[in-house]
Amino acid sequence: MIKFSCAAILFDLDGVLVDSTGSVDRQWRAWAREQGIDETAVIAIAHGVRSIEVIRAVAPNLDAEKEARKLESREAADPGIAVMPGAIELVRTIPVDQWGVVTSGTRQLASARLQRAGVPQPKVMVSADDVVHGKPNPEPYLKGAELLGINPAECLVIEDAPAGIRSAHAGGMKVIALSSTYPASALGEADSIIDKLSRLRVYSARAGSLLEVNIE
Fold it and tell me: Do 82 and 19 contact (CB within 8 A), yes or no?
């Protein structure tokens, strides 16, 4: 058994709490076709990174802000969203002041996906709207720790993408990677890798106390 001790847990959203892989794939591919861009090249970098930064990378000639708004509105309306197995049960074991969501999507998109999946809305959520620099920059996770009032070094992150792992590590945090979007072979930078959320057990004596996170 592997154990981690932390004061708070920060979750990535897509691929961790919410299964949106089909939606992301559909909408990004449709957008790429409309722009005459290679779909495969877009999909290769679309997971775990802010839409505006993906668009700037693959189509620097376009108005990235305008295209990102259009794309994320389509994603928010896409019904192909499901809860990740074990997500609801897991977050309900954590005191509300000791967990949050840090996502590369906009607040509108994240809220829509959480609602569709039936995942409780977190007290703290950091979205693409709240930062200047997205993952793999440490700003998103550092912002999450700040809003929770927790020292970054005392936060544990649950991620599914290499960019998110690098973001959390750059902020001084430990990372457990979930091999949902990427294979375990692509997540080797994480401190530990799991194949399903149900392997995690969170124990807390009381709200505000340290959390013990066990991988079983």
Answer: yes
Tokens of 103: 């996502």
| Domain 2-20+81-215 class in CATH | alpha beta
What confidence tier does 177 reach under pLDDT thresholds 50, 70, 90?
very high
Band of pLDDT at residue 47, cut at 50, 70 and 90? confident
- The H-or-E segment that residue 37 falls in is none
Active-site choice (12, 19, 78, 160): 12
* Structural domain spans, the chain: 2-20+81-215, 21-77
pTM here is: 0.89
Identify the CATH assignment for 21-77 out of 2.60.120, 1.10.287, 3.40.710, 1.10.150.
1.10.150
Contacting residues for 188 by C-beta, under 8 A, at least 6 apart: none
Per-residue pLDDT band for 154 (boundaries 50, 70, 90) equals: very high
Catalytic pick among 14, 19, 78, 160: 14
Active-site residue, 19 included? no
Tell me if residue 130 is catalytic: no
